[in-house]
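hey m, so remember when u said the tokens were messed up on ur end? i reran from scratch. heres the input so u can diff it against urs
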Amino acid sequence: MRNLILFIWKHYFVFLFLLLETLCVYLVVQNNNFQRAGFVNSSNQVSASVLSTAENIQQYFYLKSENERLAKENAELHSHDLLSFSVLVNDQYSVNDTLFRQKYSYTSAKVVNNSTNRRNNFLTLDKGSKQGITNKMGVISSSGVIGIVKDVSENFCTVMSVLHSKTTISAKLKKDGTFGPLNWDGESFAYATLNDIPTHVRLVQGDTIVTSQYTKMFPENILIGTVESYFRESAKPFYTVKVKLSTDFKKLTYVYIVNNMLKGEQEILEKNSEADKKE
């Protein structure tokens, strides 16, 4: 306390100056309309700036919950997209009487672990059997195909990403439907390889690659990437196509697990047909 008093006494002229300056400003503002208006406007601008900054900080801390809400909302929208429905046509009626039956449903999930620098890369998601997740379900994001569910626990699942040596996805050229298997060559996380494209097909850099109708784990026409380059090995009637992936696997946060609700029925039918062929 004694030191504080000594400090004030030593610099009393500074405090006195500030006090008088404040008093002068107050008198000027109170007794002159022009200065009063200017002071009020300046005060409002400062207050608005402070409030805006506080609001931005508050919104930043709400981003996590907002992102989770949007992910769930997008999953619901995906479930109502026409890509998630198969067409049922009654032979007794015209095409105008076509009905739609839902084929795919979606569950939003958060990526809690991810790798991109290995030969066989996996993701871990925060959804499991309690949420209805099973193995061999497809996984997509807002930017395209992600991978295939492999192992499932009660509350988590692992996903073989596109960046896995054993992941194979049936892909096609969007412009004409030419299809082939898409794999990862183990090099850059930004590229994959599309094989078995016939040499009579006219390829152009930038052509869009999407999922084909022959995959059970993904709806048709889900984006995979674009043609970066292509080449033909000698004496082979096929191109090998380098595909630039649409998804940046280093920036994944929220994804959607795809449930093909008719896959079981299709697999049973195909299995029975295969058994008949062996007889």
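this time it looks ok to me. Residues 2-61 form one domain. if urs says something different then somethings off w ur setup not the seq
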